[in-house]
């Protein structure tokens, strides 16, 4: 009998799905390479302009050229029909971001408006119906064992608010965007998780074994057969210090975590980039070395030192960041006079303590008011200020400072496509109409 006649149909389906996913991602990269002005090639790292190598007119030279949403955005995939389509911009079925204006409407981002980012195909949705039996194995502890979700839910719980933000957020805002999905500001949200502190579980298992330096988590993403596990496995390692705040969460904004956001169980690492929040987590291990998975060793990495792209580390802790959500120049014209300016600010790995706004491209700065509730150091804050805007061109921008004294830079030093947080890159250019 011919060999192809004996291929397992399920294996064939999974392989086709994986190839479709890879093709979708490749198309996104190709589009970025052909439409993004000056985009880097797949094997070339470029550096964003800095004030020292800019032409004589820095404001003009460093002003980014962000890609605007398409006039007719792609529809949501059927599996995400429960999402609020008007609040989202679909890059592809696996990369969907929240529109900029939506993020400033309220402190907590509703789940139906929250961005979606897949690094591989999710496991079958039927697993959610069996969520209580979802197993998680624990290694690198004194007493290796496994718990079901139901057993974890019987342990003491904790609720925490965090900024969930993809390390790629803001990529499209750089003057020379890196290859990949052209995220604007919407691969981020502020959400509330409930679960069991990972320290509680590890205590039950006798503690971490000596010599461990990393917390390594593995997801249950659907992976194709016949391809090396290191290349396809969704597994990330973070420093052991992340254990202090780590959570195994099963609710998002007060409801069971949907499959699109990593349900039934997700590792939550406050202050870290979303790539490290492993979805559908199946294994937690404490290891002496980092994971050998491609997503750890080759993807989602940033320069150890600014301006030196050859020496990199994983994209771990989020940087300080903020952006304006109102006004954005869409809808009714902004008229000269007193104008409220609003936005969101986050401190990254520590609380945001100060936010400033400029209406003249950074020549002068005005302290803004942090508004709304303070939900802890890992949540973002809303801010507001009213400024008297004159008729004509206006360049609005904001910059945040966190409790560690780190201030949002003017420009992101490296053009890797990760951790874009320059205040000029997030600016809003407006033409103010005469009053009356």
From TrEMBL:
Biased composition (Pro residues): 66-76
InterPro entries in alphabetical order: Ig_E-set (IPR014756), MoCF_OxRdtse_dimer (IPR005066), Mopterin_OxRdtase_euk (IPR008335), OxRdtase_Mopterin-bd_dom (IPR000572), OxRdtase_Mopterin-bd_sf (IPR036374)
Entry protein name: Sulfite dehydrogenase (Cytochrome) subunit SorA apoprotein
Composition bias, Low complexity: 36-51
Cofactor (UniProt): Mo-molybdopterin
Leader sequence residues: 1-32
All residue ranges annotated as the Moybdenum cofactor oxidoreductase dimerisation domain in the record: 316-423
Keywords: Metal-binding, Molybdenum, Oxidoreductase, Signal
Pfam family, one: Mo-co_dimer
Disordered: annotated segments: 36-77
PANTHER family: SULFITE OXIDASE, MITOCHONDRIAL, SULFITE REDUCTASE
SUPFAM superfamilies noted in UniProt: E set domains, Oxidoreductase molybdopterin-binding domain
Residues annotated as domain Oxidoreductase molybdopterin-binding: 131-294
Keyword Metal-binding in annotation: yes
Phylogenetic classification of the source organism: Bacteria, Pseudomonadati, Pseudomonadota, Betaproteobacteria, Burkholderiales
GO BP terms in the entry: sulfur compound metabolic process
């Amino acid at each position: 009998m011919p060999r192809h006649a004996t291929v397992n149909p399920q294996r064939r389906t999974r392989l086709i799905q994986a190839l479709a996913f890879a093709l979708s991602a490749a198309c996104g990269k190709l589009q970025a390479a052909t439409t993004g002005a000056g985009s880097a090639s797949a094997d070339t790292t470029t550096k964003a302009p800095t004030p020292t190598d800019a032409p004589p007119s820095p404001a003009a030279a460093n002003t980014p050229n962000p890609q605007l949403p398409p006039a007719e955005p792609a529809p949501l995939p059927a599996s995400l029909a429960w999402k609020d389509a008007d609040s989202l911009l679909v890059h592809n079925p696996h990369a969907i971001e929240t529109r900029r204006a939506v993020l400033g409407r309220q402190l907590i981002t509703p789940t139906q408006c929250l961005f979606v980012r897949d690094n591989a195909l999710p496991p079958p949705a039927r697993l959610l119906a069996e969520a209580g039996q979802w197993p998680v194995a624990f290694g690198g502890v004194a007493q290796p064992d496994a718990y079901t979700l139901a057993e974890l839910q019987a342990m003491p719980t904790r609720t925490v608010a965090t900024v969930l933000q993809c390390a790629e957020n803001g990529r499209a805002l750089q003057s020379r965007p890196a290859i990949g999905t052209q995220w604007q500001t919407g691969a981020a949200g502020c959400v509330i998780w409930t679960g069991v502190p990972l320290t509680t579980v590890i205590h039950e298992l006798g503690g971490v074994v000596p010599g461990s330096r990393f917390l390594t988590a593995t997801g249950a993403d659907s992976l194709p057969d016949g391809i090396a596990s290191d290349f396809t496995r969704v597994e990330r390692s973070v420093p052991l210090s992340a254990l202090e705040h780590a959570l195994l969460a099963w609710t998002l904004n007060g409801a069971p975590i949907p499959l699109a956001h990593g349900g039934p169980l997700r590792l939550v690492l406050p202050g870290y980039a979303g790539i490290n929040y492993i979805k559908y987590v199946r294994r937690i291990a404490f290891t002496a070395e980092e994971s050998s998975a491609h997503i750890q060793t080759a993807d989602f990495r940033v320069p150890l030192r600014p301006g030196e792209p050859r020496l990199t580390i994983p994209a771990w802790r989020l940087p300080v960041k903020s952006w304006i959500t109102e006004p954005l120049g869409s809808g009714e014209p902004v008229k000269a006079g007193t104008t409220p300016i609003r936005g969101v600010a986050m401190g990254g790995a520590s609380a945001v303590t100060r936010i400033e706004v400029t209406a003249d491209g950074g020549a002068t700065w005005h302290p803004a008011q942090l508004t709304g509730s303070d939900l802890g150091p890992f949540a973002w804050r809303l801010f507001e200020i009213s400024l008297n805007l004159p008729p004509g061109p206006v360049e609005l921008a904001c910059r945040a400072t966190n409790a560690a004294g780190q201030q949002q830079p003017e420009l992101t030093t490296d053009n890797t496509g990760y951790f874009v947080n320059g205040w000029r890159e997030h600016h809003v250019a407006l033409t103010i109409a005469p009053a009356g």
